[in-house]
Amino acid sequence: MNLTPKQLRILQLIRDHRITHGYSPTMQELANELGISKVTVFEHVEALIKKGALSREPNRARSLSICDDTLIPDEHQPLCFPLVGRIAAGYPIEKFPQSDQLRLEELFGPRVGEKAGSFALQVEGDSMRDEGILDSDYVIVERRETARNGERVVALLENGETTLKTFFRENDGRVRLQPANPDFEPIIIDDCKIQGVIIGVMRRY
Questions:
Q1: What single-letter DSSP state applies at residue 63?
Q2: Where residue 23 falls among pLDDT bands split at 50, 70, 90?
Q3: Fewer CB atoms < 10 Å away: N or C end of the chain?
């Protein structure tokens, strides 16, 4: 998709605002962030809608949303490292051919049949400790608004807080956001907004 730098920035701002607030920014908020006029923002948004990158519900404020098959370039920057072997304590290294590589794009990029992009968040707290997600880790999140039972999600609560938990839809229709640490209680709520599903964890030493 051929996007101008301003159009790309608008997509990024809409995505980030929806992740942190659960709804889209207004045209004026976009204009303020970009330092351009509201009219110019409107022209860019209309162009993005025509390109199939954005959709909007008529006569409804804050209804801009990124189309499911829109891949924002900053969500798709391949990264790979040479994969030179396996190592296990007490055993020799099994050497790999020099041509092999560990491609993070293949690990964390869109899965087969899924077109949405991915983004990263840094974890604060240890409520998911027992699933190996620790404080200061980075989670790779696939941008999605729905989740299946047992998936680890980034969920926006009604009070405006965002949390990382395991998602379960109970038989009564309510949502249980389950921590992985006995020091934390499950969050039982009527509903929440799913901002994405965790597809990987990264840790830097």
A1: -
A2: confident
A3: C
Residue ranges of the chain assigned to CATH 2.10.109.10 = 117-202
Sign of the dihedral through C-alpha 76, 81, 85, 86: negative
Return residue ranges of the chain for CATH 1.10.10.10.
5-72
DSSP-assigned letters across all residues of 119-153: EEEE--SSTTGGGT--TT-EEEEEE-S---TT-EE
The CATH class, in words, for 5-72 is mainly alpha
Selected catalytic residue, list 50, 127, 136, 193: 127
Q: Report the alpha-carbon distance of residue 131 to residue 129 in Å, rounded.
A: 5
pLDDT in tens, 115-152: 567 888 889 899 999 999 999 898 888 888 899 999 99
The reply to whether 127 belongs to the active site is yes
Is 165 one of the annotated active-site residues of the chain? yes
Yes or no: is domain 117-202 CATH 2.10.109.10?
Answer: yes
Helix 38-50 × helix 27-34 angle, to 10°:
110
Considering the candidates 24, 136, 165, 193, report the single residue annotated as catalytic.
165
Beta carbons within 8 Å of 34's beta carbon, 6+ residues apart: 6, 9, 10, 13, 41
pTM greater than 0.90: no
